[in-house]
Amino acid sequence: MAIYLTKESKVLVQGMTGAEGMKHTRRMLAAGTDVVGGVNPRKAGRSVDFDGRAVPVFGSVGEGIEHTGADVTVVFVPPAFARAAVVEAADAGIGLAVVITEGIPVHDAVALTSHARARGTRVIGPNCPGLITPGQSNAGIVPPDIAKPGRIGLVSKSGTLTYQLMHELRDVGFSTCVGIGGDPVVGTSHIDCLTAFQDDPDTELIVLIGEIGGDAEERAAAHIREHVTKPVVGYIAGFTAPEGKTMGHAGAIVSGSSGTARAKKEALEAAGVRVGSTPTETARHVLEALDVLGGAAPDDAARDGARDGARA
């Protein structure tokens, strides 16, 4: 099992013929993703060869769905055109839109996420690495070779920390890893993923990665306390951020104690979440929680490596 993305998912790539679209489409195909087409009105009717596989280019998302049965789109278009791209996909009836594009104006992010929600389309992102179900499908830019299938569900604001925790826990493996993005407005929240992982029978433990800014993690903590029965391990980035300074990250808006790493850590711990002080310590907490759950666990060398890294 997995959430949102499986081996049956049929993926379109909006912006496939651009430099980033080409590069990551090739990587998605290599990871086993069923990429069934690209979308570019100016190149409709052509096809692009990816290491011997010809992927057709359609003039619209609707045309792509009609010809292929696609149910996922990955958006690599420039910021100025991202809102129109997602609106087009939602109006065509796509089930999932993974918006990799960064730099989308907040006004456009509000518009595209609300429009998609009204049409029944789930948006992941914007400004996110996408999601991967190891061994099944990869929609976005997550490196496919740093984790195997397993029992952990991961939801993260940070792309880099998504990759790091996947690498730290590569010997255990993941059901699905979702990078939701760290912008002020995103289409899928920690709570959405927590709910989905709670309902997924093959996810035994959930890792939640947050960062300073906003109150998403505090709201997630309240949800965990009331609705999540599976163990949750957390990590919050930003403890060393200086007080009274404007942060560069678009989502890192801190006012007083609200939005600080300490406030988020305290809220999560009050809900029973073990929160690591480093990614490696977070991985150690995961291994210890899995030991309590029982069943297959990583070999002793992997466990000892995580523990040694945490002590260092």
Automatic annotation (TrEMBL):
InterPro entries the UniProt entry points to: Cit_synth/succinyl-CoA_lig_AS, Citrt_syn/SCS-alpha_CS, CoA-bd, CoA_lig_alpha, NAD(P)-bd_dom_sf, SUCC_ACL_C, Succinyl-CoA_synth-like
Annotated binding of CoA, by residue: 17-20, 43, 100-102
Residue span(s) of domain CoA-binding: 4-104
Pathway(s) where this gene product acts: Carbohydrate metabolism; tricarboxylic acid cycle; succinate from succinyl-CoA (ligase route): step 1/1
Protein keywords: Ligase, Nucleotide-binding, Tricarboxylic acid cycle
Keyword Ligase recorded: yes
Recorded GO MF terms: nucleotide binding; succinate-CoA ligase (ADP-forming) activity; succinate-CoA ligase (GDP-forming) activity
Binding site for substrate: 163
Any single Gene Ontology cellular-component annotation: succinate-CoA ligase complex (ADP-forming)
Function: Succinyl-CoA synthetase functions in the citric acid cycle (TCA), coupling the hydrolysis of succinyl-CoA to the synthesis of either ATP or GTP and thus represents the only step of substrate-level phosphorylation in the TCA. The alpha subunit of the enzyme binds the substrates coenzyme A and phosphate, while succinate binding and nucleotide specificity is provided by the beta subunit.
Oligomeric and partner information: Heterotetramer of two alpha and two beta subunits.
Cross-referenced NCBIfam families: PRK05678.1, sucCoAalpha
Protein name: Succinate--CoA ligase [ADP-forming] subunit alpha
Annotated gene: sucD
